[in-house]
UniProtKB/TrEMBL annotation:
<protein>
    <submittedName>
        <fullName>Competence/damage-inducible protein A</fullName>
    </submittedName>
</protein>
<dbReference type="InterPro" id="IPR001453">
    <property type="entry name" value="MoaB/Mog_dom"/>
</dbReference>
<dbReference type="Pfam" id="PF00994">
    <property type="entry name" value="MoCF_biosynth"/>
</dbReference>
<dbReference type="Pfam" id="PF24102">
    <property type="entry name" value="FLAD1_M"/>
</dbReference>
<dbReference type="InterPro" id="IPR036425">
    <property type="entry name" value="MoaB/Mog-like_dom_sf"/>
</dbReference>
<dbReference type="InterPro" id="IPR056596">
    <property type="entry name" value="FLAD1_M"/>
</dbReference>
<feature type="domain" description="MoaB/Mog">
    <location>
        <begin position="4"/>
        <end position="176"/>
    </location>
</feature>
<dbReference type="InterPro" id="IPR050101">
    <property type="entry name" value="CinA"/>
</dbReference>
Length: 245
């Protein structure tokens, strides 16, 4: 299963916010056996988002889009996804009712905050989804995410993203398996063995340099667990290895 990640936000491109969502999703999907083969960050621009969604939808098994699904003027991701499919945004009655009840509970639980600030909540924007899409709702997120034809639209706030991803996590799987070897050896000392392992076992082998006090990593990835295990064993016999708890 090949997955593309599309992260949305001017703040990501400007470096104001670190893009932890992409790395977190990459780990989750890889552990599930899927292959993340594209990661793209785009601005809060409806046309740019729509174009990227349309291209990735045609090219990959699934697309995950994160960010820009709230109720402020720059939250245009759901409108852009609707545009990519040539559909309108709609407001399902049950989703709006759910969010209206949630807003009322918030007001009851936070009277001082509501009294202090003029809360302008556009419930229609929070509840909207592309026509034909399935709304995704969680306790952590006020805005509704959605799924439409293998495109998953999730929040940008990390805790909200993680909670909503868990509602669809079972839909991502694959045959990819990975094994990691830790080594104190510099990358230059690994080239010959990595090249030979790739050729002999037909697996992907990547090396990643040590960082701070942690050793370097050699990562073996393939579609057959037995072949990956054989390649890892072969490499362990030829490079210096350290155990990491």
């Amino acid at each position: 299963m090949e997955v593309a990640l599309l992260t949305v936000g001017d703040e990501l491109l400007a470096g104001d916010t670190e893009n932890t969502n992409a790395s977190w999703l990459g780990r989750q999907l890889t552990e599930a056996g899927a292959s993340v083969t594209r990661v793209l960050t785009v601005p809060d621009d409806e046309a740019v988002i729509a174009d990227a969604v349309a291209q990735y939808h045609d090219a990959f098994d699934a697309v995950i889009v994160t960010g820009g699904i709230g109720g402020t003027p720059d939250d245009i991701t759901k409108a852009a996804v609707a545009r990519a499919f040539g559909r309108d945004l709609v407001v399902p009655d049950d989703v709006r009712a759910h969010l209206e009840a949630k807003a009322e509970r918030f007001a009851d639980d936070n009277p001082e905050l509501v009294d202090r600030y003029d809360m302008d909540l556009d419930l229609d924007a929070w509840a909207s989804v592309p026509e034909g899409g399935q709304a995704l709702l969680t306790d952590e997120s006020f805005a509704a995410g959605c799924v439409i034809d293998r495109v998953y639209v999730l929040p940008g706030i990390p805790e909200e993203l993680k909670a909503m991803y868990e509602t669809v996590a079972d839909e991502f799987d694959g045959d990819r398996t990975t094994e990691t070897i830790h080594t104190p050896a510099p990358e230059g000392a690994l080239v010959t063995h990595i090249t030979a392992a790739r050729e002999q076992f037909a697996v992907a082998v990547g090396s990643y340099p040590r960082k701070d006090d942690t050793p370097g990593r050699v990562k073996i990835t393939g579609d057959d667990p037995a072949t990956v295990a054989d390649a890892a064993a072969w490499l362990r016999e030829r490079i210096e290895v350290v155990d990491i708890e």
